[in-house]
Amino acid sequence: MTERLAADAAGIARAAALLAAGQLVAFATETVYGLGADATNASAVAAIYEAKGRPRFNPLISHLPDADAAFRHAQADARAARAAASFWPGPLTLVLPRRDESDIAALVTAGLDSLAVRVPDHPVARALLAATGRPVAAPSANLSGRLSPTRPAHVLAGLEGRIAGILESGACGVGLESTILDLTGPRAAILRPGGVSREALEAVLGPIDLASGTGGDVKAPGMLASHYAPVLPLRLDAETPEAEEAWLGFGPEPGGAAAVRLNLSPAGDLVEAAARLFDALHELDDTAIAAGLRRIAVARVPLRGLGVAINDRLARAAAPRG
Ligand code: AMP
Ligand code: MG
Predict the structure, then answer these.
(1) Which residues pair with 262 in a beta bridge?
(2) What is the pLDDT of residues 288-303, one digit of tens each?
(3) Which of 19, 31, 58, 237 could be 300's S-S partner, Cβ–Cβ 3.0 to 4.6 Å?
């Protein structure tokens, strides 16, 4: 059952309580309806992927009530401060170096050390963010592969019964997504065009690269998620660990000699496994290297539900790289 909440004080308070309890709530922003989860709760973030039926983990945008809150999680340089002063609140997402002390879940950034942050300009989104007091990860509130939703009816058509609540507040503005501006390198680059034009950004920041244009070595957004890969090679669909291997388990632990082991979910729960995946890969990589091991063997993860996205990520982490 999806609770249909009016966008008044009581509805906002209920939506904030649902988010705090690790539930999913759809809400209007000035771009499209977002599907929100507490960004510091990895299981809640995993539930976003499950509800949308997304076949892969791509990094999500974290929504915050103001620039100060955003820059407590992401490192702002002078360019970021200027962009924020000119365009926030508004349809501009900044990709910045993630702060070490940020408690945003690794699943939100798909293991990357950069973080996408935005301060939306919609009264309902702003009220909800103020009431939750925590970063809210939110992709568009539609089933994977469907059109982005600009009305409550669009959200409910795809997600009714799959999410805890929706704050119903009519149609969003234009339905155009936020412009994504990458400020992690020396040259600013637009990763996705959207509600703030390149010209408007250049008036504030000077020349900007376009990811798909003349920018040369700038990566397209879809490729960015593949940046993160463990240092050690992975052996997938393994039954038991061999000599010189660390073990990344799913479900019951097998025998075998591996002294370095982690389990994504001893109970075989795919949401739990998705929530732990990136932390587990990072941690196992570090401890296995420190222990002088040569490879990480990974248990078979079933290809259903979130297992599809988990297998996609493992396959790309295991792919040969130059
Ligand atoms: P959506 O949430 O559907 O608006 O899409 C989020 C977009 O932000 C995707 O295209 C992501 O690739 C991009 N994105 C989010 N986080 C990052 C990041 N850390 N680095 C680069 N792109 C990002
Ligand atoms: Mg989308």
Answers:
(1) 248
(2) 999 999 999 999 999 9
(3) 237
Pocket test for ligand 1, best of 48, 191, 226, 313 (most atoms within 8 A of CB): 191
Give the closest residue (by CA) to ligand 1 atom 14: 59
Query: What separation in Å is there between the alpha carbon of 182 and the centre of ligand 1?
Result: 10
Tally of CB atoms within 10 A around 221: 17
Cα separation, 188 vs 31, whole angstroms: 22
Contact 62, 105 (CB under 8 A): no
pTM of the model: 0.89
From the list 98, 34, 94, 103, the residue with the least C-alpha distance to 67 is 94
Tell me, using a 6 A CB cutoff, whether residue 114 lines ligand 1. yes
- What domains are there in the chain, each with its CATH number? 3-177 (3.90.870.10), 234-318 (no CATH)
Q: Of all helices (H) and strands (E), which one includes residue 248?
A: strand 245-249
Q: How many helices (H) and strands (E) does the chain have?
A: 10, 15
Ligand closest to Cα of 57 equals: 1
For 274, the 3-state DSSP assignment is: helix
